[in-house]
Amino acid sequence: MPIFRQMTEWTGNVKFRLKLFISYFLLVSFIIIILGFTYYQISASNMLRNVQESLGNVVMNNNQLLDEKLRDIRDKSEVLPIDNELYQAIIDVKSYDSESLVIADRKITNILFKYFGSDDIYSSFIVTPEFTFGNTVRMFVAPDNFFSSKLYRASIESQGDLAWVPTYSYADTFQEEGMNDLSFEFDRLISAVKELNLTFIDEKGIFRTMPQGIKRPVLMVSLTPEFIGRLFTEYAQKSNLTHLSYGILNKDGDSVVSSAGDPIAERKPSWFDAAAVNKRGSMQQVINGQKMLISYSQMESTGWISYIEVPVADALQELKAIRSYSIVFLAIMLIVSAILAYLLSIMITKPIIRLRKAMKMMERGQFQVHVPERGHDEIGELVRTFNGMNVRIQTLIEENYASLLRQKEAELMALNLQLNPHFLYNTLTTLYWIAVENNQTEMSRIMLSLAEMLQTTTRNKDETWPLQTDLGWLDKYMYIMASRFENLFTITYEVDERLHNMNVPKLFLQPFVENAIIHGLAEMEEGGIIAVKGWIDEDRVIFSVEDNGVGISREHIDGIRSGKVRSTGMANVEKRIKLLYGASYGIDIYSTEGQGTRIVIQMGTFQETSMMKEGASA
Q: Membrane-spanning residues where (predicted)?
């Protein structure tokens, strides 16, 4: 657990680019190694299968050739007992007459040569108790020794069939003790023996057999182990399998031919019983601690089993080159994957690094930074979101800054206006009492209204105040203006009582009422009407100032909206409304020349204005 915890902590502290590089590299490396291992296993399996097929073909070809040779010997051995010439030569021989034996030997030797004169056959004899007939140039078998050997016993047990006696020691089999320490060509032989029941058909067509009581002659045909295993030897010499071994086993598992040297010393292999049952095939078995590949096939003529053994490691020795190439290829692929992992990590982390640098700059107060947007993937979307967020932050900062700036300007203006507000207020009060003492009622009311207006304005430094306060201030202003214009107009108020306590921009109605008096009604002599209204329209609060004056031309309205015609009061009010409530709110002008003008002021929702009130109170 501590190791796992340390690994977790280390992983958490490693940079994302390095983690991405390592994870991608490990993933690709794992895939490459798995593919390489799978490729190696498949190649090894295919190569082993090819070696099995090759060895199986060699074993089958060897068996086919040997079967042809051995069947030929068997077929000729079956024809030999009915050879009239052989019968006559055996019957006519006189064992006590040397000349008769020599003549019979020549005849029988020629007969044997006619049947078994192939170079593949090492020697052929017909052995009788008195004499051994055949070519004795290569080897000689004494009759007494033969009839006491296992070869004779095998011929008797086969009951007239050809019997094969696998590899045996000449000296031991024929009791030639003086030859045990000698090295000679026919020390190891493979022989076929058959008891010959000779028959003869004379000129009269009478079928004759050998007389009863006479020991039957025995045919002995010998082959060398070198001949039997010649094809195996040639294959072993041509093959690059350095530890290949081969052999032939008889039905009892005794060695007939062995590449190990002396087949007589060979023991029955552990896999023989399974091979005897299957008769043909391949198997893998551990022999002396080494895994061996064995291909075997049973001969049809004798029932012997031919086999080839090869270490599996030798069968796969050509795979070493493939292994080397595979290692080089895997190394190249790992290098390429490392390069690709590095490039991929850079491609993925570069936008993230840019974002991190941009955040650092924003942390230092530089909000004008913009990260380049590339692509439409998740990272590209993240960059676009960041840029959008940065723009919104800049907008909010500018709005808050502008609001604070306006507040400071208002405070400065208030300070300028408050050079000595008590002095101005006291002066106006003094003038009011002078007017009262002189019975100047109208003048006293004007002085009182002006003093109250001054007192209301100087005491409230906020940008907003309750609508009821604004309407009270406007009412005093209208009294002064009515006195000035000698009852030229009348003003009416129609405001929803629910709006009286809502906060509104200070003096937002006064500029429009003043414009209506000065520009709309000034040229009239009487009958001017100014209507101030306020209502709630669904989710918006709307005010209007309407007069029945001269109206405004379309060109003049367009000039006001475009800024070509200067309207300080109207522009100031609209700017304050947009800053307080948003760009979707503001002022609309509706006018018809000769009929009057209607100013519509749209503010925020009733809920928003209530919140402003609560904020201002706080």
A: 21-40, 327-353
- The C-alpha torsion from 388 through 390 and 396 to 401, rounded to 10°, is -150
Cα separation values, 33 from 25, 323, 355, Å: 12, 13, 37
Residue 259 · residue 246 · CB < 8 Å: yes
At residue 612 the predicted structure's pLDDT band, cuts being 50, 70 and 90, is very low
282 forms beta bridges with 295
Q: Report DSSP letters for 10-41, one per residue.
A: HHHHS-HHHHHHHHHHHHHHHHHHHHHHHHHH
Tokens of 259: 């590449």
* Size of the chain in residues: 618
Q: Which of these ranges, 301-305, 317-321, 341-345, has the smallest mean pLDDT?
A: 317-321
Q: What pLDDT, on a 0 to 100 scale, did the predictor assign at position 545?
A: 94
Residue 569 above 60 pLDDT?
yes
Q: How far is CA 384 from CA 4, 219, 370, in A?
A: 38, 105, 10
In the chain, the domains with their CATH numbers are: 53-315 (3.30.450.20), 358-399 (no CATH), 460-617 (3.30.565.10)
Q: What is the DSSP letter of 528?
A: E
Buried b (16+ CB within 10 A) or exposed e, 100-131: ebeebbebbbebbeebbeeeebbbbbbbbeeb
Q: Give CA–CA dist 293/291, Å, rounded.
A: 7
**Which tokens in the block code for residue 39?**
């490729």
In which element (H, E) is residue 338 found? helix 319-363
* Amino acid 5: pLDDT: 64
